[in-house]
Amino acid sequence: MNRKVFFLLLSVLLCCSFVRAQEVQKSEFQQKAEAVDPKQDIAKARSLYIHAFNDYVNKGQTKQAVECGVKAAALYHKENFFKESFELLRRVDQAIVTGKDKTPSVQAGLHYLVTKERLAMYMKFRKIESAKEQLSVLENQANTSGDENLKNDLLYNKATFYYTFGQIAQGNAVFKEMANKLTASKEYDKVDEVYQTLISNARKSNNASMVAQSYSNYLAWKDSTNALKHADEIKALKKEIADNEATISEKDSSLTIRWAVIIGLIILAAALAAALVIGGVILLRFILLTRKQKKTINLANESNALKAKFISNISAQLEPTLKKLDPSIPEVKALLNFSDHIETLSQLENRTDTPEVEEVQVQAFSEELVDQIRDKVKGGVNIVVNVPKMSANFNKEYVSHILSHLLKNAAEYTPDNGKITLEFKKRSAHSYQFLVADTGEGIPEEKREDIFKPFREIRDLTTGDGLGLPTCKQMALKMKGDLEVDPEYTKGTRFLLDLQA
User: Fold this and answer.
1) CB 88 within 8 A of CB 118
2) What is the pLDDT of residue 11?
3) Torsion sign, CA atoms 29, 34, 38, 39
4) Residue 426 burial (CB < 10 Å; 0-12/13-18/19+)?
5) For residue range 155-200, what is the model confidence (pLDDT) as tens digits?
6) pTM, rounded to two decimals
7) Among 71, 168, 264, 390, which one is least packed by beta carbons within 10 Å?
């Protein structure tokens, strides 16, 4: 009897496995189509997908038929055979209607894939009304399907639609809704993938405005997500510490009760045992905390290094596309400058060595820098150079970059009949200080720390990207020095550049 039951169960399992294998097995045409690289032979890949579509329709496998039909239509679309693409999509829709599964949610999900391809073509045509109509159909199908993945994909397509037709505000709103939805469920990788896809599509379409907007949004989201991740890590670490402390407390209580029973007999041994246990617990806690802290620090350093490398790679990929655009357009020029500034800042963050120093004649060096801004100051502005005739050892490239940026800012913000001062002081045998002061409005105390932080806000790149002072700060730190605003200066603004020889 037991043997019969065993063989019966084994037969059922084998049968289920066979049915499942049949469901996931791809047809020969689809396997051949996926084996062809469309970049090498797009016509062959398309033909095989069409054969796979027809084969699946004949077998009544509607879902697989739709997937292959849409892929073939996309390959028609890629070669600008739009008439053939639309005709094939019409056949795919008909196959869904005549398919075996008449469930509204299932059919809506399949129709969604077809409508999505039509939307892509209308956007390529730049036909906004037709694209808008398809987007409305797409939304109805996503809602009818009840599939959360399709609803998220709908938000992405909405954002792409708005960005494609220059409706930046609407695109930002939809994209923010999608990012917040996925971020709330802690699906950070999905949000990151969506941003990457959007940036990639913007580059491919040479849409400079879309590149800038999506990249700025991505950086802002990345910073906020990192903060959430770190907060979660800290919260988990605190909980683990609290749990460990509770466990240790329970063990201490248990040991105390045992000691109370035998304290009269072996008081000295009990005291020694207690000391050893408490010491071991403290040491164990210290080791655990130290390991956790080291791991957290290493993860943070690795995250920063990967972030700098990623930004550098993105900047390098954007540069060839941006250089093809007209640099006389303010937005394009702003993007080019933004790309250069990001590249410089990421290189600084990745740099681990100390920049080489050389002997520099300070007075001649300072006069040369000041001469660069004399034609940029407003009427009546007095430029004072208070630098002694002496030499000093520092990295000329970095110091020149920092002082030039500070002097240009001073020229911009110093009003008529104002004063700009460049000073140099030797603090000790191996430390120097440059001071750049102006009589402008000054920087409010609450903003003095933020001006050295990159990507602290999303802003119009044509008015500046806010990376100048953060880059200067990084250069100063790489030279084992520092750059800060003088809090005691009240007649305007004065920056202090400290250097170590």
Assistant:
1) no
2) 47
3) negative
4) middle
5) 888 888 888 888 888 878 887 788 777 777 777 777 777 777 777 7
6) 0.41
7) 264
Give the count of alpha carbons within 13 A of 261, CB side only.
5
Give the CA count within 13 Å in the CB-facing half-sphere of 254: 7
The radius of gyration of the chain's CA atoms, rounded to the nearest angstrom, is 33
| Segment 85-129, tens digit of pLDDT | 999 999 999 999 998 888 999 989 999 999 999 999 998 888 899
CA distance 67 to 501: 66
Query: Tokens 């005291």 identify what position?
Result: 271
Residue recorded with tokens 């800060």: 484
**Six token digits for residue 147:** 């599939």
Read off the pLDDT of residues 382-427 as tens digits, 9 standing for 90 and up: 999 999 999 999 999 999 999 999 999 999 999 999 999 999 998 8
Per DSSP bridges, beta strands 382-386 and 419-428 are parallel
Kindly report the average pLDDT of the chain as a whole number: 81
Please, what is the Cα angle at 33 between 31 and 38, to 5 degrees?
A: 140
Q: How far apart are CA 84 and CA 436, in angstroms?
A: 67
Give 3-state DSSP helix, strand, coil % of the chain, rounded to 5: 70, 10, 20
| Rounded alpha-carbon distances, angstroms, from residue 151 to 115, 182, 398, 470 | 14, 11, 50, 40
Per mean pLDDT, which range of 84-88, 273-277, 340-344 is the poorest?
A: 340-344
Cα 346 to Cα 311: distance, rounded to the nearest angstrom: 7
Residue with tokens 């683990």: 240
Degrees (nearest 5) of the Cα angle 424, 425, 426?
135
β 482-485/391-394 pair status: unpaired
Strand partners, 434: 424, 497
Q: Quick check: 277 and 255 in contact, CB under 8 A?
A: yes
Count of beta carbons in the 10 Å neighbourhood of residue 270 = 18
What one-letter code names the amino acid at 3? R
Q: Do 436 and 493 meet the contact criterion of CB atoms below 8 Å apart? A: no
Rounded distance, CA 404 to CA 373, Å? 8
* CB-facing half-sphere around the CA of 276: CA atoms within 13 A: 6
Instruction: Determine the Cα angle at 346 with ends 344 and 348, to 5°.
Output: 70
Instruction: Give the start-end residues of each E strand in 25-153.
Output: none
* Six token digits for residue 182: 């996925």
Strand ranges (E), 300-390: 358-361, 382-386
Sign of torsion, CA 437 442 448 454?
negative
Band (292; pLDDT cuts 50, 70, 90): low
Average pLDDT over every residue of 211-234 = 74
Buried b (16+ CB within 10 A) or exposed e, 180-191: ebbbeeeebebb
The residue count for the chain: 501
Phi, psi (rounded to 5 degrees) for 358: -145, 160
Query: Which residues neighbour 248 within 8 Å (Cβ) at sequence distance 6 or greater?
Result: 281, 285
